[in-house]
Amino acid sequence: MIAPSPFASFFMAGFECSTQKRRDGRRLDLIVSTQHDVRVEADYRACAEMGMKTIRDGLRWHLIERAPGVYDWSSWRPMLRAAKAAGVQVIWDICHYGWPNFIDIWSDRFVERFAFFAESAARVFAEEMDGAAPVWCPINEISFFTWSAGDVGYFFPAEKGRGPELKRQLVRAAIAGAEACLKVDERARFVWCEPLIKVERTEPHLNDAADAHHNSQFEAFDMIAGRRDEDLGGRPELLDIVGLNYYPHNQWYFAGPTIPMGHHAYTDMQELLTVVHARYGRPMIISETGAERNARAPWFHYVCEEVRAAMAAGAPIQGICMYPVLAYPGWDNDRHCDVGLFRTPEGGGERTVYEPLAREILRQAAEFGA
Question: Which of 177, 205, 271, 295 is the most interior residue, by most CB within 10 Å?
Answer without folding.
Answer: 177
